[in-house]
Every structure is written in structure tokens, then in C-alpha cells.
Design brief:
- The complex is a heterotrimer.
- Chain A contains nine helices and ten strands.
- By secondary structure, chain A is of the alpha/beta class.
- In chain A, α4 crosses α5 (about 140-150).
- In chain A, strands 6-7-8-3-9-10 form a six-stranded mixed beta sheet. A four-stranded antiparallel beta sheet of chain A has the order 2-1-4-5, covered by helices on one side.
- In chain A, α6 links the parallel β7 and β8 (about 190-195).
- Chain A has helices at about 40-45, 70-75, 95-105, 110-125, 140-150, 170-185, 200, 220-225, 230-240, and strands at about 1-10, 15-25, 30-35, 55-60, 65, 80-85, 160, 190-195, 205-210, 215-220.
- By secondary structure, chain B is mainly alpha-helical.
- Chain B has two domains: about 1-50; about 60-275, no CATH class.
- In chain B, about 85% of the residues lie in helices and about 0% in strands.
- Chain B has helices spanning about 1-10, 20-50, 60-100, 105-145, 150-155, 160-200, 200-210, 215-240, 245-275.
- Chain B starts with a helix and ends with a helix.
- The model of chain B is unreliable at about 1-15 (pLDDT under 50).
- By secondary structure, chain C is mainly α.
- Chain C has one domain.
- Chain C contains nine helices and no strands.
- Chain C has helices spanning about 1-10, 20-55, 60-100, 105-145, 145-150, 155-195, 200-205, 210-235, 240-275.
- Chain C is globular and about 65 Å long.
- The chains are: A alpha/beta, B mainly alpha, C mainly alpha.
- The interface between B and C is large, with 52 and 49 residues.
């Protein structure tokens, strides 16, 4: 379980997170929605220990990750798999090397086992045979899928997906949502997912939260969200132009 | 211009009879020769376009003022720091000989000659190219990548007279002014360090400069700084406008512009050293 | 923090005055500089630590060596060739004006090249070329989140990105600067021969180069080779904000690497002066 308490973060003079607190239960898919620049990515980067808050803390299974040094954080981070908004594939490595990278750094598998795992992942995201290409030779959707393969290859307990379907067509998007959901259920992992594709996201989440201007506006189960009377949540979930947003 | 390069690459892909390695080497040399010729041509075309904006003068004076301030003001501290140390290093290098021949009277002359004619203009130009030229390339490159230049065109604003001419004039003027300032600081640094390590009086040091150097020695350095300014301005604007391919493209362009400026500075310095003697 | 307190006190509740704002600006600048210096120092220490204790990626150092050498060899040769010609031209014309005795010009020139000029001018060129390259590479990785992706895989950025470049730079800078010495000596010799009729055999006089000159020159090569990747790596890792940020990082890398080599040159030359010659 992940607990976020009173998180605050500023970049220069701009406040990006203001007093964000939430409990993310273990073993579910937790969705995070909100308009652009509302602090979603910054929040999940704090959860992964990539950023240090100005105030407040993030606890993963009771350990305060925000107070740890870099070495201790690395140990905890090895239990996370993360897909970045712009995929963050390493340009200098091939697709297969990209997916193998976390295995090489975090596990003691030998080369044969690594190759097997990589091939299995590539097949799972529908990119079998693409292992020798470089990321620059792929389309946006293919790169996204390589990113997903890299994020899930270590079979981590915690998964973070930042915009897994940005820039993809609706059919592929839905396939990816279903794939990630199946992945999360089969490993019994805890997944955090940010997405602007509200309809697709709502079809797979257990719980959902909404952020607005650096604050957490709402957090609850999927049904609670759909029934919410909060004007912001209502408008955002239905994609209406009329309303406070 | 880019078309010819593309054709060259396509033509090169057809199988040839020559051995692979030799072919590849020749192709690489050919491509870099074509590349250098292309860049030189592009820079000259850009110079032509800029010169045309002066007849009649079509200059955005507000932009010019802003650029002058930005380029001069922000570079002042780093130029001053560099110059002090350069002056001091000159004296350190000379001191072994000075002590050997006890030629204290010549330290001012030697340091002055080297700083005013060569080292001052060159080093200040290199720092200026790193600071202002590279920054200019990055700015223009970002504007190209984010389609701001096309935006200007769509508003019927001429990018050359609005963006390039003020930067061009700003860089040439400011490098000249900074060279005057930097030379002075370097001489003071040399005098100060000479006093501290070799015990040479300020008066003796500056006496060496005023007695043994001619005004021409000062002018040569300043003429050089004008030419260096021209080179930095042209190459940084050219490479900025020629950026292709997103954020990594901007990085590559900055690199290329700084390198081209450095080569241009040393090559032109070599010829000016002859011509202006 | 203390800056804000200062502004409030000086402003006496109202609008802070001109002096207070200036003071606050200077204070904030000093704080920023102190923070930057601390981070640079920490990167330096971590680089040394991981150079010894870090994980070795197969071929990473060799690749970095190739990158540095390949990128700089032609550029360095061209520039240093011209620098050699300019220096010898100046020395000979000045000597002709005073004594006209050119038979020691080669020996003195070679001593100066070995002791200082090859390393100092050459390393500024390398700072431009190599430093800008390192900052641009690492900077683009930062703005596209690749550095965060590395950290997610327990790959410490200093260990994975800076250390191979650091090792490669120490080796390649030394090799390239020794090559630069050679290029400068040859181009200077040819200038003296072609323009001033100095016989190459007289010019090529190594009698003035002794242990002290070699030690000073090599120390400089090593120090500059170590400083460039650390300063540029620092500039790359502190990149923020998209394409423009990468451009800024590259600019800072060039300026601060150049400045670092000038500062180190000053320190090493002065130390050498007191240790060897005073």
C-alpha cells in the first residue's frame, strides 16, 4: 500500500503540488485523471522516489521514501516498473536491449533467460521480431508499446503508467488498457495509471482520483466517481464544455 | 541545398565495383567536402541577405537595443574573469625566462604584445562564441523547431530584418566592446600578478607597454575582434536557422556553430596576422 | 530563506526599496552559486567513487573514447596547426626586429608548447567540442525522462553516464593533447623553415625541454581531461525545459568548461612555478 501525506512541491516560484494526501490500496488499478498541468506526473514521480518533496512524505509499505537517501531509494525503486509520458526509451540501445536493461540491472538472470523474457514481452505487446530495431525507427504507438514492455518486464509489485495511450488510435488504446489490466491482475500488482483518455481509463480502474491545479479534488471507487456530484468531476468525466472547468 | 546531399546518399547506396572500405572512405570524404562547401555557401547567402537589409536600412531598433543589452551585459562577468586569469597566466609563463635573463623591463612589452594582438581578441572571441553565439544558435534553433519562424512569416514579418539583423549587429558591436574591456582587464591582471610574483612595479610594467608598443598593435587586435564578431554572428545565425529534428537537433546545431566559429577564428586570425603586420 | 527575511526587514512592511531588492538579488545569486558549487562538487566526488567502485558496462568506455577522438581529431589538428603557425610567425618577426638571431627560437617554442600552449589552447578546443557534445547528449536524455528511466533501473546517472565519459576523457584528452603538441611543433617548424629560413634541424631542438616541463604539461592534460566531462556532465544533468533547455545546457557547458581549463591552468602553472622554478 502506498500512502501520500501532505505532499507539497514547488519548482522555482510555481507551486505544482499543494497538500496532496491519499491512500492507494494494494492490489488494484488506481486511475489518476485531471486537466493538463495539474500535477499528475509530478505526483507519480514522487511516488517512485524520483523527486523529493518540499513538505510531506510518501510511504511505500510503511517506509518513508521521501526521507531516504538515493541508495536506499534505489532498492525500493527496483520494486517499481514505470512507463514514462514520452516513453524515455534509450536512443542508443536497440528495442531488445531497452527491454533487457531493467533485467540486467535489477535481476541475476543469465543471458538466455533474459532473451526469453524479452521475446515473451515483445510478443505480448505485439512487436515480435522488432527487437533489433532502434527506437528512432519505430512509430509513436510502437514506441509506447516498447515502453510498456520495459515497464512490465521485471514483474514488479508496483507499476506506474503515465499516459499509456497518448497519441494512439481508439482501438489500440482500448487494447492497451485491457492488456495492462490483465497484466496487473495476473501479477496481483498495484498499478497507478494516468490517462487523458477518461472513457478508456474508467473501463479498467478499481479506484480513481482527480487532480486540479496541484490539489487532489476527488478520490474514490469507480462507481463513486461516476455518481459524484462534484461539478468538476462530473464535467471532466463527461467531457462537457459547460461547467466550472 | 539539402536535396543535393540526399541525392548523393541515394546514389552512394548503389553497388559499386570498388572495394567496400575504400568506397565508404571516399564517400565519407566526399560527403564532408560537400557539407563544408554547402555550409560556406549557405553562410555567404545569409550574409548577402543581411547586407541587403542595410540598403535602405531595415532594422528593428528595439530588438537591436534588447540584443545589445543581453549580449553585452550577461557576458561581462565571464569575460572579466577569463581575462584576469589569462593575463596572470601570461606573466607566469614569462616569469621563468624573466628570472633567467632578469629582463623585467620587457615583461610589460611581452604581455602587452601577446594580449593586445593575439590572445586577448582570440580568447575573448572564443568565450563570446561559447556564451553568446551558442546561445543565439540555441534560441534561433528552438524558434525553428517550434515553428515560430514560420509564425513570423505568416504575420508578414521578415525574419531576417526582425531576428537576424539585430543579432548580427549586436554581436559584432558587443564583441568589439568586450575586447576593449577584456584587453584592459587582462593587462591589469598581468600587471597585478607581475607585481605579486616577480615584484615588477606597475609603472615599469605599463612603461613597457607605452614605450615599446605602437598604437597599431592595439588597432590590429581590434580589427581582428571585428572580423571574429562577423564570423561568430554569421555562423551562429546560419546554424540556428538550419536546425532540423527536434531537441537533439538543437544540441547538434549548437555544437556545429561553436566548432565552425572556432575554426573560422583561428583560420582568419592566421591570415590577418600576415596581412595586418 | 535569509534573503526573504532581509527583504522584509529592509522594506519595513512596505515595498522593498531599490537597495533591498539589489541586495536580495545578490544574495539569491550567491545562494544559487553556492548550491551549484555544492552539486558540482558532489558530482565530482561521486564520479571518483564510481570510477573505482561502480558497475562496469561492457564497451561503454571504449565507445566514449571513440566518440571523443573521432569527433575532435580533425578539428583539433586543423586549429592547432594554425595556432602553431601564428605563434612561430610572431616570435620570429619580433626576434628579427630585435636581435635577428633565430637559432634558439625552436627550442624556446617547443618548451612553451610542451609546458603550456598545447594543453591550454588545445583543451579549450576540446572543452568546446567534447564538452558541448556531452552536455547535449545528457541534456536530451534529461528532458526526455531517460535519466529518470535509468534511475528506475538502479542505474545511478553519474555512474552510468558520467563515469565512462570521465575515464574516456582523461585518456583521450591526454592522447589528443600530446598529438596537438606534435602538430604545433611540426606546423611551427614548417613556418620557420618556409618563411624565415630556419633549418628544421636547428628548429627541432629539444634541449630546453626537461622533466619539469613534461611534468607540468602532462599534469595539465590530465587535469583538463578530468574537468571537462565533470563540468559538462553537471551542465547536462541540470538541464530543464525542452529543446531550449538542451541549448542552454550546451552553452553553459562550453563556457564553464573553458573557464575551468583557464582556472586550472592558472593554478597548475603557478604551483609549478613555485615548486620547480622559484
Amino acid at each position: 500500500m502506498i500512502r501520500v501525506v501532505g505532499l507539497r512541491k514547488r519548482f522555482g516560484r510555481k507551486t505544482v503540488l499543494e497538500d496532496v494526501g491519499v491512500d492507494i490500496p494494494a492490489g488494484g488499478l488506481w486511475g489518476l485523471i485531471g486537466p493538463g498541468a495539474s500535477g499528475k506526473t509530478v505526483l507519480v514521480k514522487h511516488v517512485a522516489g524520483l523527486l523529493t518533496p518540499d513538505a510531506g512524505r510518501v510511504e511505500v509499505e510503511g517506509q518513508n521514501i521521501s526521507a531516504m537517501g538515493e541508495v536506499a531509494r534505489q532498492k525500493l525503486r527496483s520494486r517499481f516498473g514505470m512507463l514514462f509520458q514520452q516513453n524515455a526509451l534509450f536512443d542508443s540501445l536497440t528495442v531488445a536491449e531497452n527491454i533487457a536493461f531493467p533485467l540486467r540491472r535489477l535481476t541475476a538472470l543469465d543471458e538466455r533467460q533474459i532473451a526469453e523474457r524479452v521475446a515473451e514481452r515483445l510478443a505480448r505487446v505485439g512487436l515480435a521480431g522488432f527487437g533489433d530495431r532502434t527506437p528512432n525507427a519505430l512509430s509513436g504507438g510502437q514506441r509506447k508499446r516498447v515502453g510498456i514492455a520495459r515497464a512490465t518486464v521485471t514483474q514488479s509489485e508496483y507499476l506506474i503508467f503515465d499516459e499509456p495511450t497518448a497519441g494512439l488510435d481508439p482501438v489500440t488504446s482500448q487494447k492497451i488498457f485491457d492488456l495492462l489490466r490483465a497484466e496487473q491482475i495476473s501479477r496481483k500488482s498495484t498499478a497507478l495509471m494516468i490517462s487523458s483518455d477518461v472513457a478508456g481509463l474508467m473501463s479498467v480502474v478499481d479506484r480513481v482520483a482527480m487532480m486540479l491545479r496541484g490539489r487532489l479534488l476527488f478520490e474514490g471507487t469507480r462507481d463513486e466517481a461516476l455518481a459524484s456530484s462534484d461539478p468538476y468531476v462530473k464535467q471532466f468525466l463527461r467531457g462537457e464544455t459547460e461547467g466550472p472547468l | 541545398m539539402t536535396e543535393s546531399l540526399v541525392q548523393l546518399e541515394v546514389a552512394g547506396k548503389q553497388p559499386g565495383r570498388v572495394s567496400r572500405g575504400a568506397e565508404r572512405a571516399v564517400r565519407r570524404i566526399g560527403r564532408s567536402v560537400v557539407g563544408i562547401a554547402q555550409q560556406t555557401g549557405g553562410i555567404l547567402v545569409l550574409l548577402g541577405k543581411i547586407v541587403r537589409r542595410f540598403f535602405p536600412p531595415d532594422i528593428d531598433y528595439y530588438e537591436l537595443k534588447r540584443n545589445l543589452h543581453k549580449m553585452g551585459n550577461r557576458s561581462l562577468p565571464i569575460i572579466a574573469l577569463t581575462s584576469v586569469f589569462v593575463g596572470a597566466i601570461m606573466v607566469v609563463q614569462a616569469s621563468a625566462y624573466v628570472q633567467q635573463f632578469s629582463a623585467t623591463a620587457f615583461v610589460g612589452w611581452g604581455a602587452g604584445y601577446v594580449i593586445l594582438r593575439e590572445l586577448g581578441p582570440i580568447l575573448i572571441a572564443l568565450m563570446f562564441s561559447g556564451r553568446v553565439g551558442a546561445n543565439n544558435t540555441a534560441e534561433l534553433g528552438t524558434m525553428v523547431v517550434t515553428e515560430q519562424i514560420d509564425g513570423l512569416r505568416s504575420l508578414a514579418i521578415d525574419p531576417i530584418s526582425y531576428l537576424i539583423v539585430p543579432r548580427f549587429l549586436g554581436m559584432i558591436t558587443m564583441l568589439f566592446v568586450l575586447t576593449v574591456f577584456g584587453n584592459l582587464v587582462a593587462l591589469c591582471g598581468a600587471a597585478l600578478f607581475g607585481q605579486l610574483t616577480l615584484g615588477i612595479e606597475w609603472r615599469v610594467f605599463f612603461h613597457g607597454i607605452t614605450e615599446l608598443l605602437k598604437p597599431w598593435d592595439v588597432y590590429v587586435g581590434l580589427i581582428k575582434s571585428l572580423v571574429f564578431g562577423l564570423i561568430i554572428a554569421l555562423s551562429s545565425c546560419y546554424f540556428g536557422l538550419a536546425v532540423r529534428g527536434g531537441a537533439p537537433g538543437v544540441g547538434r546545431a549548437v555544437n556545429a556553430s561553436v566548432v565552425a566559429s572556432a575554426v573560422g577564428i583561428f583560420v582568419s586570425d592566421y591570415f590577418m596576422t600576415f596581412l595586418l603586420d | 530563506m535569509s534573503v526573504e527575511a532581509g527583504v522584509v526587514k529592509a522594506g519595513q512592511g512596505g515595498q522593498p526599496g531599490w537597495a533591498a531588492r539589489r541586495l536580495a538579488g545578490i544574495g539569491a545569486g550567491a545562494l544559487d552559486n553556492a548550491r551549484a558549487a555544492r552539486l558540482l562538487y558532489s558530482i565530482f566526488i561521486r564520479t571518483l567513487y564510481y570510477s573505482v567502485r561502480g558497475r562496469r558496462e561492457k564497451g561503454a568506455v571504449l565507445r566514449a573514447c571513440y566518440g571523443i577522438g573521432n569527433r575532435s581529431l580533425f578539428f583539433l589538428t586543423a586549429v592547432m596547426g594554425f595556432v602553431g603557425m601564428i605563434m612561430v610567425f610572431h616570435s620570429c618577426t619580433q626576434i628579427n626586429r630585435i636581435t635577428g638571431d633565430l637559432h634558439l627560437v625552436g627550442a624556446t617554442y617547443i618548451q612553451l608548447v610542451v609546458r603550456d600552449f598545447a594543453a591550454s589552447v588545445g583543451s579549450m578546443m576540446l572543452a568546446t567540442r567534447v564538452g558541448a557534445g556531452i552536455a547535449a547528449e545528457i541534456g536530451s536524455m534529461v528532458v526526455t525522462d531517460q535519466v529518470d528511466a535509468l534511475r528506475m533501473c538502479a542505474a545511478e546517472p553519474v555512474d552510468y553516464l558520467i563515469v565512462p565519459r570521465f575515464k574516456a576523457s582523461v585518456v583521450m584528452t591526454t592522447v589528443l593533447l600530446v598529438w596537438a603538441m606534435f602538430v604545433m611543433e611540426v606546423s611551427g617548424m614548417l613556418t620557420a623553415w618556409g618563411m624565415f629560413n630556419v633549418n628544421p634541424r636547428i628548429f627541432w631542438n629539444l634541449s630546453m625541454v626537461d622533466f619539469r616541463d613534461l611534468a607540468t604539461g602532462l599534469t595539465k592534460c590530465l587535469a583538463f581531461g578530468a574537468a571537462i566531462p565533470i563540468v559538462s556532465g553537471y551542465c547536462g544533468l541540470t538541464t530543464f525545459g525542452g529543446a531550449e533547455g538542451v541549448g542552454w545546457a550546451t552553452t553553459r557547458a562550453v563556457v564553464w568548461s573553458c573557464f575551468a581549463t583557464i582556472l586550472l591552468n592558472f593554478i597548475i602553472s603557478t604551483t609549478a612555478l613555485y615548486v620547480f622554478w622559484a
